[in-house]
Amino acid sequence: MSPSCGPLSGYTQIAVIGENFIDLGRDQIMCGFKQEDSANFVSTDGGKQGVVLTNASIINSTFVYCDTPSLMNKQGYVVDGGEGAWFDVFISLDAGSELSDSNGRFEYYQDPVINELTPALGPHSGGTIVTVNGTGFDQNTTCGIYVRLGLIEITPMNITNETLIFKAPHSPYPGTAAVSFTLNGQQYTKQPAISDLPKELTFDFYEPPYTTYYYPTRGPSNGANF
Q1: pLDDT of residue 91
Q2: CA 154 to CA 144: how far, in whole Å?
Q3: CA-CA distance, 105 to 4, in Å (whole number)?
Q4: I need a labelling partner for 137 at 20 to 30 A (CA). Which of 82, 94, 127, 213 fits?
Q5: Could you tell me which residues come within 8 angstroms of residue 195 by beta carbon, excluding any fewer than 6 positions away?
Q6: Cα separation of 22 and 136, whole Å?
Q7: Which helix (H) or strand (E) holds 133?
Q8: Which CATH architecture has domain 113-206?
Q9: Stretch 124-142: mean pLDDT, rounded?
């Protein structure tokens, strides 16, 4: 099952690999998410007590896609568990009446928060060492840590819970790139605005300066020329 972790907001698309996945008709194949102590979760589709059911997309007899449930209410508050919350994941071929004998494990994490980048700019040739300050970068339930500048994905060089260090990549052109972060290789932190990006969540690639002319061309050996 991949990825095996995701944010509390849910909707991580997981690929489930197994055997004997049979399509018995519309909305029959489903993913079931269950905790031993989750009696407060009751399926609305006639499934088993304590099981959350989500629709699945069957690709073939060994491959199914499904989305994870959200642990947050409409107001954006966590309603059950928090960082480290987990579910056993099962496959059902009959809309939740019966679950597979085997299962995988899916774990939730808190979305990381980016506060600022230092430095927040560098030449578009790349190589700038950037420190990201924030929270939630190094959690126990992670399964794919990447930074993204625009569309370029980067593997961090060093990570603590409050700092992350990466080397800026080469960019074909100068410009401003939005900075985002993922702990599962799929769901990146969201920008609060698309048209007006906050400065602390951007990195500027600039054209390296160069000299075409300087004056004077000579001076005393003790220096101090301007």
Answers
A1: 93
A2: 11
A3: 7
A4: 127
A5: none
A6: 40
A7: strand 129-135
A8: Sandwich (2.60)
A9: 92
Query: What distances in angstroms separate CA 134 from CA 43, 119, 160, 164, one per listed residue?
Result: 37, 14, 10, 8
The answer to whether domain 5-109 and domain 113-206 are alike in fold is yes
Whether the predicted pLDDT of 161 surpasses 80: yes
Instruction: Using pLDDT thresholds of 50, 70 and 90, give the confidence band for residue 43.
Output: very low
**For residues 128 and 151, what is the distance between their CA atoms, to the nearest angstrom?**
18
Residue corresponding to tokens 């909707």: 11
CA dist 25 → 22, 58, 68, 95, 152 (Å): 9, 11, 21, 10, 40
pTM score over 0.85: no
Give the mean model confidence (pLDDT) for residues 203-207.
93
CB 162 within 8 A of CB 136: no
Tokens of 107: 């774990």
User: Would you list the domain boundaries of the chain?
Assistant: 5-109, 113-206
Fold of 5-109: Immunoglobulin-like (2.60.40)
